[in-house]
Amino acid sequence: MQDWIAERQALGLKASSIVRHLGHLSQVLHWARDIKNIDIRPELVIEARRRFLRHNPVIGRLRDRKDPKQKIGNNQVVPLLPAAMAIVRARRELTGGVGRIFAYRSAYISERWHQTTRYLEIDDLTFHDLRHAAITDLFRKGLDIPEVALVIGHRSWRELKRYTQLTAADVLGKFSALEQAGG
């Protein structure tokens, strides 16, 4: 498998293309095993893909990222967290790497959010609340201000701090963890 990957790298394929090809290969091998009863181990491709991604991370690029001053052409490269990258990879495999990762428009997502919260009788939860929770969680995981700002898209602490919901207990927990680690 490593030779196959090395051949594609030698041809000049980008990491994202190699990952996509490995995904297709995995699907073919699963089909061969499950439908044609061929004695083959598709998990070898999955493991090779994991190893490749560990050493060749695929960069997430957001086009026209929301910005109050620059609506068009605000493209940014952002680090996608592993769970988010797994979703992107799965969607790319599903779409064959063509088109949008998610085919839904914001108006559709907004309407579904409102329908769901009404159905569940949740009055005080907005979609934007998820942003607050995510930012707080990133800080709790130990990321610093510039790292969280890069992931979230804010350019300053002033813009970012209103989303942060850290508590005194969070800070004390971090100190305790440092002390236990000998720091």
Q: Can you count the beta strands?
A: 2
Q: Tell me the helix content.
A: 55-70%
Task: Please give the count of helices.
Answer: 9
The averaged pLDDT comes out at 81
Oligomer: single chain
Topology:
Blueprint: H1 2-10, H2 15-34, H3 43-55, E1 60-62, E2 76-78, H4 82-95, H5 106-119, H6 127-140, H7 145-152, H8 157-161, H9 168-180
Antiparallel strand pairs: 1-2
Helix pairs in contact: 2-3
What does it look like?
This protein is globular. The chain has 183 residues and is mainly α. The protein has a two-stranded antiparallel ribbon. It is 60% helix and 3% strand. It is built from nine helices and two strands, in the order αααββαααααα. Helix 2 packs antiparallel against helix 3 (43-55).
